[in-house]
């Protein structure tokens, strides 16, 4: 406690002093006062008020928070002001509490705040309190003058709705009217309803869509109005149209929209009437604005669903483009329609329709008015404010104000009178600035102003020359025929041109005037006006120039010697100091002498010119004219004396490098004085011989053989002499490099008549200029196609099929080109006539067994070259005697008495010869059994013995080992396997490559040991190696196709019967069907041809050697590669080695002819009958199908018979693969039946599967071996 001591002194009022009690004052009795305990603060009250409410957007509003406490007390602390609209708190600022009034004493805090968003703003002011007074809060609300139609002025019970069942026909909220139509017969409604139902999904009404009262129509899918509570409107669009009428003085600005629960669930889930929305579905609400007359002023689209996404939240739509609308009409369309129209429920929900005040404008007097009439405009602002101003603008873009801004009083503002409105339809815009409690707005008024305008034209048009007669025509708008026009020259309307002229049909033309002053003149036409047409005037500007003349002189005067500097002076009449003079040498004003020269006091002089050509030259001075002066020009003739030198060459250009060339200079005037020196090249530094005396105007150089290849310039310099100035001239000579042309053909000679052949010319020096023309035969009279452009030294002819049989010479003629001399070359081609062979027998069929019979072959074309070999039976394995020479087209066999009983086919094979292709023909002979004598008792025979098993010939059944290499992307190694699947050797022939390795196994050296041949896959230059697997030695290495990088296939077999396997190489995809054959042992190339008769095919090829009957007679089998059909061509091996292409069997398709994935091929005696059979594998993209055809049937009955009765037809390895299958043959079990090895195709894994021939013959395709050659690789394998 504290103590207060009361003291009294004489003559004074007692006062309070604070002293400690002390013994020095014994006579004074102290009074002790005890103070109350004030440790708890007292209460306070805060009230909040705004200076303006409503307040316009962006207008500062002063907020005052008054803090009330018990009288006599002084509060301290601060007040925090906040905007807490829509549940979101936005701090506005903090201000201290201070005393603001003394009678009574008041305390408050003030803060200036500006609001930018439309609508109501809920404000709070929180007093912080201090040590004596507790905190307290005050609130208030301000708005920006807009109307928020949020239906809060409509009364509803909780979770209910109004749908027009009271028959009122609609309702009004915020001044806007919402239409409604209720049908009591069906208890149904259209138009607008208002609701606070909060159904959002079927969980809240599980009987949807079968609720008896259809409550789900009245729910917004978000559940409540925007912000979480309150009333909102729902609309059902039917007839009559769903509409809102905007109150007078207001215009629409925005609104919030969403789906009703009914519509949303229908789109999200589908129902019995409508489908579930998918990615391409949409539901569109269109708001159309109409003015008071029902005219459409605009539309706003709003998607309630788009691209399958259904709107499930409230979203705002900007409707300000419909500001001039008095009615809003709503319609809906959907992607889900049916026979009776839209299937999607035609409902939507709306809230927070925002309206803002408008401005209306009137004029006095009312439109239309006559031009020049003073007009005033009055703006009426909704809400009758007395704050802000209105600025009136004439015309578009608000750039032409009518006077100054006018203060608004009681909602109106009027302009001062304006008499300057232009003739026509004028739009007047009144822009209200807004003010405290009122937002800015604007309105327009249209005014039609009638009147005339006068325009003036002149004839002739400006500029004109002084003294020229000029007339002027005035055109008056509206085409009056009343009133007159007076024309005035110059300013001030004081110098009339003639008398006033009557206006007829809107025009009047002045008298001609020749007195216009030089310079810029203005002519004014004044229309007097007349009944119904106000007066007006217009002007035309005319420039009148003084006429000038230009004369030219030269210094020195003409004539002058060539090379003399000369200047020219132009003198312009009237002595102007404006404009320029340009001087030109020669005709056509195309060769200016220097730049244009300014005219000063009427003269202009060129710089000196020493380059005038010899002869009579005309110099023209062109004056440009200038203000007040017309253009003009003049000429001066100057004679320039001198010589000219021209040069010719012999022989004329072009010449070939090293050719002697002489040059002759001809000097004009035919002097016999002076010399000419000839120079080669630029710079006059390389003379051709010594100077040559000029005689009668000519001089000829010594012969020059050293001109450089290319374009050379030779200059002849005439020294001049008495009476003749010096001069020089040039001659251009093209010196071409000598070339040679060589020619090759494809295919190479010899060829069969009718074969398509192309020729390639190679020109030395690799030019890319000029053309080559190819000629067949002598005389260069029979061109093969058109001339062909040379590129990098080569040109290839069109394909020719018409070369004559015999020895043909083809000539390629290169025409030469810049830097390259012409040349030509030849290629000899032997064209063999295609032959046919027919066979007859003597005696004719039938014959009796044992009868001697001879056969005669007749070869078409009657050749006396080549031989015919006769064969009995199928397979061309049983020759009748030796080959017989053909003479005059015939050859007769030796007599043969051994034909077997039955029908025998005799085949005559013509080998071909120079100019004649090989061919063959057959004859059928029926042999009947001879009549036997009565049988006698046969001698006793010994017991039969079992026949020995067939011999196992490698040429028929394959090697006892096989090799496997990977496809593209696999390892670069090759593995050699024994017949039991064990590894015999592993090789890495092309280290580091990733294109895979193709392989085969055969004895190339004839030493009884199998070798391995390998070839590269795509991605590197194609290479093939033959390797001894025991030592690793490379026995042969070749790059067969030049720079080709598409990969190769390899095969092997003894085509020549030498006991050594021959090597066969073919290209992979992107190569042609080329086949190269190298002889075993020395590996010399013995054949090179197209295995598929289509040289343009670029799918490559695969090959196999068919051991035929095992007696050395073999065939080569070629299959088309990927991109071609599974086409198979079979060639007689002996004929191939003689350069002949003989087909013992016609081409056929191994699989369906419609396929385009080629085929893989191998050959071996699968059925053990002594004749090789053909094994085919499907190409990439097909199933792993393996087809084995009987070789004997193929040779005797053709492909149709063989295909009809195959040895086997099955799917190998993984039967689900569709990557094709590679095939090979090997002797895996040592018997007389070739066994089949298969490998997975590209992308099909690395599985290798083997099948025994003896099983396949019996119809059993069960694998013998099955393993993954490269367990971690799935890209396919090659087997061989």
UniProtKB/TrEMBL annotation:
Residue spans of biased composition, Pro residues class: 932-952
UniProt keyword annotations, A-Z: Cell projection, Cilium, Flagellum
Gene3D superfamilies linked: Immunoglobulins, Integrin alpha, N-terminal, Protein of unknown function DUF4465
InterPro entries: Big_3_5, DUF4465, Ig-like_fold, Integrin_alpha_N
Region (Disordered): 919-957
Domain Bacterial Ig-like: 53-142, 362-450, 457-545, 553-641, 648-736, 744-832, 844-928
Entries under Pfam families matching the protein: Big_3_5 (PF16640), DUF4465 (PF14717)
SUPFAM superfamilies listed in its UniProt record: Integrin alpha N-terminal domain
Entry protein name: Flagellar hook-length control protein FliK
């Amino acid at each position: 406690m504290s103590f207060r001591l009361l003291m009294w002194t004489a003559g004074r009022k007692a006062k309070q002093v604070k002293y400690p009690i002390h013994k020095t004052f014994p006579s004074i009795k102290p009074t002790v006062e005890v103070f109350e305990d004030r440790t708890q603060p007292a209460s306070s009250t805060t009230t909040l008020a705004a200076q303006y409410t409503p307040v316009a957007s962006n207008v500062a509003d002063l907020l005052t928070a008054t803090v009330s406490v018990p009288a006599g007390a002084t509060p301290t602390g601060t007040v925090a002001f906040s905007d807490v609209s829509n549940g979101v708190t936005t701090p506005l600022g903090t201000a201290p509490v201070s005393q603001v009034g003394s009678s009574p004493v008041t305390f408050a805090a003030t803060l200036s705040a500006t609001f930018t968003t439309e609508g109501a703003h809920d404000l709070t002011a929180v007093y912080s309190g201090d040590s004596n007074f507790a905190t307290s809060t005050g609130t208030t609300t301000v708005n920006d003058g807009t109307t928020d139609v949020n239906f809060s002025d409509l009364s509803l019970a909780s979770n209910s709705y109004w749908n027009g069942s009271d028959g009122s026909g609609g309702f009004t909220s915020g001044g806007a009217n919402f239409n409604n139509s209720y049908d009591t017969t069906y208890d149904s409604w259209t138009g607008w309803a208002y609701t606070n139902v909060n159904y959002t999904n079927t969980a809240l009404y599980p009987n949807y869509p079968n609720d008896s009262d259809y409550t789900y129509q009245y729910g917004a899918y978000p559940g409540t109005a925007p912000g979480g509570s309150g009333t909102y409107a729902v609309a059902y669009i039917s007839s009559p149209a769903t509409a809102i009428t905007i109150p007078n003085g207001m215009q629409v600005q925005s609104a919030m929209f969403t789906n009703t629960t009914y519509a949303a669930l229908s789109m999200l889930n589908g129902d019995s009437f409508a489908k579930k929305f998918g990615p391409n579905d949409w539901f569109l609400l269109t708001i159309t604005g109409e003015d008071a007359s029902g005219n459409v002023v605009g539309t706003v689209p709003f998607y309630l669903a788009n691209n399958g996404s259904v709107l499930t939240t409230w979203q705002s739509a900007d409707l300000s483009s419909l500001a001039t609308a008095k009615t809003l009409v709503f319609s809906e369309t959907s992607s889900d329609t049916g026979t009776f129209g839209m299937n999607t429920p035609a409902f939507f929900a709306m809230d927070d329709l925002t309206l803002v005040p408008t401005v209306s404008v009137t004029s006095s007097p009312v439109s239309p008015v006559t031009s020049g009439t003073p007009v005033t405009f009055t703006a009426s602002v909704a809400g009758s404010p007395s704050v802000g101003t209105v600025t009136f603008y004439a015309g578009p873009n608000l750039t032409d104000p009518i006077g100054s801004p006018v203060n608004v009083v009681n909602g109106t503002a009027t302009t001062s009178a304006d008499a300057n409105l232009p003739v026509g339809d004028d739009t007047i815009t009144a822009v209200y600035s807004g003010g405290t409690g009122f937002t800015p707005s604007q309105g327009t008024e249209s005014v039609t102003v009638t009147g005339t305008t006068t325009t003036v034209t002149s004839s002739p048009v400006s500029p004109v020359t002084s003294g020229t007669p000029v007339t002027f025509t005035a055109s008056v708008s509206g085409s009056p025929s009343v009133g007159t026009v007076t024309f005035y020259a110059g300013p001030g309307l004081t110098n009339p041109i003639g008398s006033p002229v009557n206006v007829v049909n809107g025009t009047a033309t002045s008298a001609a005037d020749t007195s216009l002053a030089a310079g810029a003149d203005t002519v004014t036409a004044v229309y007097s006006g007349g009944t119904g047409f106000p007066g007006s005037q217009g002007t035309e500007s005319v420039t009148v120039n003084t006429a000038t003349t230009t004369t030219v002189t030269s210094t020195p005067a003409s004539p002058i010697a060539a090379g003399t500097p000369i200047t020219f002076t132009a003198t312009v009449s009237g002595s102007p100091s404006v404009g320029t003079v340009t001087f030109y040498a020669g005709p056509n004003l195309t060769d200016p002498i220097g730049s244009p020269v300014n005219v000063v006091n009427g003269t202009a002089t060129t710089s000196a010119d020493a380059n005038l050509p010899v002869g009579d030259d005309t110099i023209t001075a062109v004056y440009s004219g200038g203000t007040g002066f017309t253009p003009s020009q003049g000429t001066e003739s100057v004679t320039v004396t001198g010589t000219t030198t021209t040069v010719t060459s012999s022989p004329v250009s072009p010449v070939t490098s090293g050719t002697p060339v002489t040059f002759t200079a001809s000097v004009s005037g035919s002097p016999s004085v002076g010399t000419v020196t000839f120079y080669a090249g630029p710079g006059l530094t390389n003379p051709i011989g010594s100077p040559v005396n000029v005689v009668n105007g000519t001089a000829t150089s010594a012969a020059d053989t050293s001109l450089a290849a290319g374009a050379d310039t030779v200059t002849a310099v005439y020294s001049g002499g008495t009476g003749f100035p010096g001069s020089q001239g040039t001659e251009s000579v093209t010196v071409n490099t000598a070339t040679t042309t060589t020619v090759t053909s494809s295919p190479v000679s010899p060829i069969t008549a009718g074969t398509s052949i192309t020729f390639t010319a190679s020109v030395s020096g690799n030019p890319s200029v000029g053309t080559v023309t190819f000629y067949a035969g002598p005389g260069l009279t029979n061109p093969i196609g058109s001339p062909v452009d040379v590129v990098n030294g080569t040109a290839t002819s069109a394909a020719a099929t018409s070369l004559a049989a015999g020895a043909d010479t083809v000539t390629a003629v290169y025409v030469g080109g810049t830097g390259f001399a012409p040349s030509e070359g030849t290629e000899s081609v032997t064209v063999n006539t295609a032959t046919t062979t027919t066979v007859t027998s003597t005696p004719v069929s039938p014959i009796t067994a044992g009868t001697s019979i001879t056969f005669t072959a007749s070869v078409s074309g009657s050749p006396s070259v080549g031989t015919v070999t006769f064969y009995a039976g199928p397979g061309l394995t049983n020759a009748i005697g030796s080959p017989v020479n053909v003479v005059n087209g015939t050859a007769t066999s030796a007599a043969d008495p051994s034909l077997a009983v039955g029908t025998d086919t005799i085949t005559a094979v013509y080998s071909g010869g120079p100019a004649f292709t090989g061919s063959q023909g057959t004859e059928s002979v029926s042999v009947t059994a001879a009549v036997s004598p009565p049988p006698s008792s046969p001698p006793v025979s010994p017991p039969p013995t079992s026949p020995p098993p067939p011999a196992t010939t490698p040429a028929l059944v394959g090697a006892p080992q096989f090799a496997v290499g990977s496809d593209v992307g696999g390892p670069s190694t090759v593995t050699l396997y024994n017949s039991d699947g064990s590894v015999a050797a592993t090789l890495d022939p092309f280290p580091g490559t990733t294109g895979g390795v193709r392989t085969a196994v055969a004895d190339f050296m004839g030493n009884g040991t199998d070798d391995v041949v390998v070839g590269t896959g795509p991605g590197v230059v194609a290479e093939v190696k033959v390797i001894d697997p025991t030592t690793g030695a490379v026995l042969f290495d070749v790059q067969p196709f030049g720079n080709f990088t598409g990969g190769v296939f390899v095969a092997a077999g003894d085509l020549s019967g030498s006991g050594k396997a021959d090597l066969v190489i073919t290209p992979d995809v992107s190569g042609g069907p080329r086949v190269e054959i190298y002889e075993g042992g020395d590996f010399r190339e013995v054949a090179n041809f197209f295995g598929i008769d289509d040289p343009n095919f670029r799918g490559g090829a695969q090959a196999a050697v068919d051991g035929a009957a095992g007696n050395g007679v073999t065939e080569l089998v070629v299959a088309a590669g990927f991109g071609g059909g599974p086409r198979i061509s079979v060639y007689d091996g002996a004929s191939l080695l003689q350069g002949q292409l003989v087909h013992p069997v016609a081409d056929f398709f191994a699989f369906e002819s419609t396929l385009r994935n080629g085929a893989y091929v191998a050959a071996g005696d699968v059925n053990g009958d002594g004749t090789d059979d053909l094994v085919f594998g499907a190409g990439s993209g097909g199933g792993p199908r393996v087809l084995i055809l009987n070789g004997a049937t193929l040779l005797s009955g053709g492909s149709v018979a063989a295909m009809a009765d195959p040895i086997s037809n099955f799917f190998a390895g993984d039967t689900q693969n569709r990557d094709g299958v590679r095939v090979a043959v090997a002797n895996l079990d040592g018997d007389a039946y070739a066994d089949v090895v298969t490998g997975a195709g590209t992308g099909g894994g690395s599985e290798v599967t083997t099948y025994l021939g003896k099983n396949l013959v019996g119809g059993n395709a069960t694998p013998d071996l099955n393993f993954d050659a490269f367990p971690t690789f799935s890209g396919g394998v090659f087997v061989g």
